[in-house]
């Protein structure tokens, strides 16, 4: 199903003598009131906060102009070098990438089992995956802390990688099973008839078609991990192991007079997720329909 | 032999996921149940031991903050979900229309979805703190909205809407795109206007998506701690403390694990009860 082709009844029949021009909608004013005005208002609500952060990040301290020019990068130098965002950023990237890899690999395995096999316990597995959505991470801080303490992973980025992967996994497996189910089994079967093993058939035939699914699941995992705050706050207390959200929360607390540093830290936190979001947003709606409809 | 190996394949594939869920989700829940019956405080290890139902008695009888946080949690979830449903549905209907620049408009209005709770706090503190905000340009007098008992609730609700509406809209847009276009055509042929098409075609088809979205988001908003923890810290005067925030504060700040576990159990029971009730009442997934 293509998500961009929308059948619009009552629009297509005007094309006659001037086919090069788009047919004009009949009730233009109604459309403006119904569509563009609310959309415009909502865009203002969405974008003004982002703009405000950018303004503070590039405006010299003490200035109050709403349109900063010339811009300065002094706040970025402060947060990156003096406050330690270079270290926080590196830690967040490590945790995010490892969790992305682990989540995606395990989601492909679990999703393949769910979509290609009818095995005893399959329904139970599905129910457990869905039930985990009701388990709040905040409520498990206490026992998880105890477990990671026993494992010697407190103040270690490993605890964050494990915890974030576990909380990313259930939805990722369901989502991935939807994407795999959308690839017809017959192509895989044909490869196996040609002498491929099941694994080789999967790698050679199915995996290339899973690109949108891999991008969607991987990006969700990365964004969730990048944004996770409470686990990092609870399991890591040494500053050289801080992740970006923890660093940012301390900037909010300690530098509340220095809004330039706060805003610059915010921009540093936002840039990676905004880039990932720009890639993933095309798959976002489609990914959710695939997971929800076929899961 | 070959068929035995074949039958083992799915179990091998799901085994890592099952192991991780068992070790880091199921076992912790069991241990929360166990700790809730214990005295366990990392700052006072000499007093650890079996407590029976003492933690629960303390919670239900002595702890006013428990009841207050429950009340605020209900208010918070109802306000957020009601407004997110309304705005999210409107937004989904708008970006489901075809117009020039729709792809860009979608990216922009959905973008706060990717922003973390802490970053949301950082951004909105720049708007709310006196002397920095945009209220100045709207000609409003600037006050400390987050420190004022009258304004703190609307302020935190609007902040969470900024981040919460996009995901609601994404879920509903996915539902909207599953409605066959012919149905609208048929309804238009039958002379149904825009409002009647919405009532009789769109809403019935969206029902499962709406039920699922409201449920998922309610659980999510119930459990949402990052934003309130960093934006208000539960204040002023603890009026914006939700139950999970209270638990997190107990765990992080006072290290009182026994009592925190009792609070957690209360949270589980409440969440489970309302989720089942909601699924029952909404008759989710039943054929109509």
Automatic annotation (TrEMBL), chain A:
It holds the Pfam family BPD_transp_1. One of its GO terms (cellular component) is plasma membrane. SUPFAM superfamilies: MetI-like. Keywords: Cell membrane, Membrane, Transmembrane, Transmembrane helix, Transport. The keyword RNA-binding does not apply. Residues 89-280 form the ABC transmembrane type-1 domain. Signal peptide: none annotated. It is found in: Cell membrane. Gene3D superfamilies: MetI-like. Belongs to the binding-protein-dependent transport system permease family. This is Transporter.
């Amino acid at each position: 199903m293509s998500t961009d082709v929308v059948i619009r009844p009552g629009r297509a029949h005007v094309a006659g003598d001037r086919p090069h021009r788009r047919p004009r909608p009949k009730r233009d004013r109604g459309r403006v009131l119904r569509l563009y005005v609310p959309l415009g208002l909502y865009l203002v609500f969405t974008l003004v906060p982002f703009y405000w952060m950018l303004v503070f990040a590039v405006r010299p301290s003490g200035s109050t102009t709403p349109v900063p020019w010339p811009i300065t990068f002094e706040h970025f130098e402060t947060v990156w070098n003096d406050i330690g965002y270079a270290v926080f950023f590196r830690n967040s990237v490590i945790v995010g990438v490892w969790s992305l890899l682990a989540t995606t690999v395990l989601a492909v395995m679990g999703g393949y089992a769910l979509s290609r096999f009818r095995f005893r316990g399959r329904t139970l597995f599905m129910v457990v995956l869905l039930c985990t959505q009701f388990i709040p991470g905040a409520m498990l801080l206490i026992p998880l802390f105890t477990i990671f303490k026993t494992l010697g992973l407190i103040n270690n980025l490993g605890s964050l990688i494990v915890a974030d992967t576990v909380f990313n996994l259930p939805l990722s497996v369901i989502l991935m099973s939807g994407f795999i189910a959308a690839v017809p089994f017959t192509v895989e079967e044909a490869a196996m008839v040609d002498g491929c093993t099941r694994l080789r058939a999967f790698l050679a035939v199915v995996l290339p078609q899973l690109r949108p699914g891999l991008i969607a699941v991987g990006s969700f995992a990365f964004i969730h991990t990048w944004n996770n705050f409470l686990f990092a706050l609870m399991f890591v207390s040494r500053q050289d192991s801080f992740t970006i959200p923890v660093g940012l929360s301390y900037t909010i607390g300690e530098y509340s007079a220095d809004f330039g540093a706060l805003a610059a830290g915010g921009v540093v936190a936002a840039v990676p997720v905004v880039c990932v979001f720009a890639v993933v947003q095309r798959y976002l709606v489609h990914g959710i329909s695939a997971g929800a409809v076929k899961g | 032999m070959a068929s035995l190996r074949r039958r083992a394949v799915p179990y091998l594939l799901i085994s890592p996921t099952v192991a991780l869920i068992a070790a880091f989700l199921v076992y912790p829940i069991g241990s929360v149940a166990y700790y809730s019956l214990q005295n366990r405080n990392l700052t006072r290890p000499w007093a650890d031991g079996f407590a029976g139902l003492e933690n629960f008695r303390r919670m239900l009888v002595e702890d006013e903050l428990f009841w207050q946080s429950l009340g605020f949690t209900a208010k918070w979830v109802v306000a957020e979900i009601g407004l997110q449903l309304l705005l999210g549905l409107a937004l989904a209907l708008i970006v489901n229309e075809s117009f020039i620049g729709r792809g860009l408009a979608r990216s922009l209005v959905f973008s706060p979805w990717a922003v973390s709770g802490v970053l949301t706090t950082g951004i909105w503190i720049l708007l709310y703190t006196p002397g920095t905000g945009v209220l100045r340009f709207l000609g409003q007098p600037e006050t400390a909205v987050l420190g004022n008992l009258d304004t703190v609730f609307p302020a935190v609700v609007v902040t969470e809407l900024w981040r919460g509406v996009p995901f609601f809209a994404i879920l509903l847009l996915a539902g909207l795109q599953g409605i066959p276009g012919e149905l609208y055509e048929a309804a238009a042929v039958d002379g149904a206007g825009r409002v009647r098409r919405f009532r009789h075609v769109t809403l019935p088809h969206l029902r499962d998506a709406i039920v699922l979205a409201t449920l998922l988001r309610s659980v999510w908003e119930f459990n949402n701690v990052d934003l309130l923890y960093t934006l208000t810290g539960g204040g002023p005067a603890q009026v914006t403390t939700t139950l999970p925030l209270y638990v997190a504060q107990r765990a992080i700040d006072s290290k009182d694990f026994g009592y925190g576990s009792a609070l957690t159990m209360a949270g589980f029971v409440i969440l489970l009860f309302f989720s089942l009730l909601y699924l029952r009442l909404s008759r989710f997934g039943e054929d109509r």
